[in-house]
Amino acid sequence: VRGLGLRCTGAGPVRGGGAAASRERIAVSLGAPGNWAVRRMAERGGGVFREQAERRGSAPFLHRWNGSDWEALSWSECRTRVLRTGAALVAEGVAAGEAVVLLSENRVEWILADHGIQAAGGVTVPVYATSTADTIAKIVANCKARLAIVGATKLAANLPSGVKVVEMDRELARWMAGARPESAQAGLKRR
């Protein structure tokens, strides 16, 4: 995505036709029209991402600007980060179907956190980084989120009290770099 420091080397955008048509196009783009297993994976949130990551391995998934050059992140590296994030969310007590707020500027970690929330069986509630504290409080109350992943530290100040804050440059970075707790690994397999 030009101007945001991100480039995606995956499939192009899917437009029009609603969710059912999108799932059909996902199945077709995976070379398996009519394959119900692929369709079921598409319906399970992060299933398509994990399947593609297994297939594509070391091929580039994302590129990010590191200050002097574009740095490639492979499908397998991103898959590992996503699964570690999902396992950490399970360890934090995020239940299947539970809302997790994602409040951040555009960055690679946003994409990986989104997939991590899906891997944990959670529901991503994206909130614009430019939203007011009042708007954010209404969104959090409406979805009953207990946890929020935030980009810049200053964004955490806009969250209502009682919401656990996970900062991308702190906790999320540790989650993505570390090993998954055994109990959380088992939780991910069940979701």
Helix coverage percent: 40-55%
**Average pLDDT score:** 79
- Give the spatial strand order of the biggest sheet: 5-4-6-7
Rg: 17 Å
Low-confidence stretches: 1-42
N→C terminal distance: 31 Å
Shape from CA axes?
globular
Order of helices and strands: EHHHEEHEHEHEHEHH
- Sheet-strand content, in percent, reads 15-25%
Number of helices: 9
Largest sheet: 4 strands, parallel
Structural class: alpha/beta
Number of DSSP-assigned strands: 7
What features would you describe in this structure?
The structure is a single chain. The protein is of the alpha/beta class. Helix content is about 50%, strand content about 20%. The protein has helices spanning about 20-30, 35-45, 45-55, 75-90, 110-120, 135-145, 155, 170-175, 180-190; strands at about 5-10, 60-65, 70-75, 100-105, 125-130, 145-150, 165. The strands form 2 sheets. Strands 5-4-6-7 form a 4-stranded parallel sheet, sandwiched between helices. Strands 1-2-3 form a 3-stranded antiparallel sheet. β2 (about 60-65) and β3 form a beta hairpin. α1 packs across α2 and α4 (about 75-90) crosses α5 (about 110-120). The chain is globular, with a radius of gyration of 17 Å. The two termini are about 30 Å apart. The model is unreliable at about 1-40 (pLDDT under 50).
